[in-house]
Amino acid sequence: MPSDEPVLRVRNVRKGYRQVPVLRGVDLDLPPGRVAGIVGENGAGKTTLLRVLAGDLRPDGGSVHCGGRIGHCPQETVLHDAFTVEQHLRFFQVAYGLESLRRAEELMEVLRFPGARRRARPGTLSGGTRQKLNLVLALMHDPDVLLLDEPYQGFDWETYVRFWDLAEELRARGRSVLVVSHLAYDAGRLDTLHRLEDGVLREQERDAAESGDRVGAP
Ligand SMILES: Nc1ncnc2c1ncn2[C@@H]1O[C@H](COP(=O)(O)OP(=O)(O)OP(=O)(O)O)[C@@H](O)[C@H]1O
């Protein structure tokens, strides 16, 4: 039986920019094997929150505890045009200390990353293909918690469906996924849905979200 002990525990996180508060006391418990969504309007602070959770931004107060490895797929791709796709994979392999690219290869297969583009530079890839690479880089070390900021922007429908199959596979293996979007997309695919509003996170009825502002994705 998987434990319900949260793998990610967030308490009273506060963060502002130049004295303007954005996060005013965010709490969140994410147990293993859960897919959770965070929605909120433009500027609500979703990206700020994910960056704090990923350790990329320092909170002004509160605490973030993660009992495992984190994967972060930010909204802005982490790709650098000095390197080819293959070089990105090798660079991240070393950074993560991985023996092989086995998992990366699997992920590229699942997402149908075009093999012929492995020697290409990111700037020459389509937006959706760049996003696939971004996702592979965030996932290739098989993190316990995956933080995704608007992950399927630019994905076609088939890739979008594959993305959710992948999220399902991660959940089945006890991994946790936190997906941020400004839309209450397919809330039925989530275990929990949270709304970031006025700097705090509140759990929301998924049915209400679906009948309310559900918008066709991606
Ligand atoms: N580096 C920064 N310096 C100053 N202000 C910032 C910075 N980053 C974000 N902000 C401000 O913080 C607020 C929250 O921004 P954030 O990008 O976290 O929101 P968001 O919910 O992700 O928005 P969106 O849905 O548009 O991506 C906004 O008012 C934004 O202008």
UniProtKB/TrEMBL annotation:
The keyword Glycoprotein does not apply. It holds the Pfam family ABC_tran. SMART domains: AAA (SM00382). Keywords: ATP-binding, Nucleotide-binding. Residues 8-218 form the ABC transporter domain. One of its GO terms (molecular function) is ATP binding. InterPro entries: AAA+_ATPase, ABC_transporter-like_ATP-bd, P-loop_NTPase. PROSITE patterns: ABC_TRANSPORTER_2. SUPFAM superfamilies: P-loop containing nucleoside triphosphate hydrolases. Transmembrane segments: none annotated. This is ABC transporter ATP-binding protein. It comes from Microtetraspora fusca.
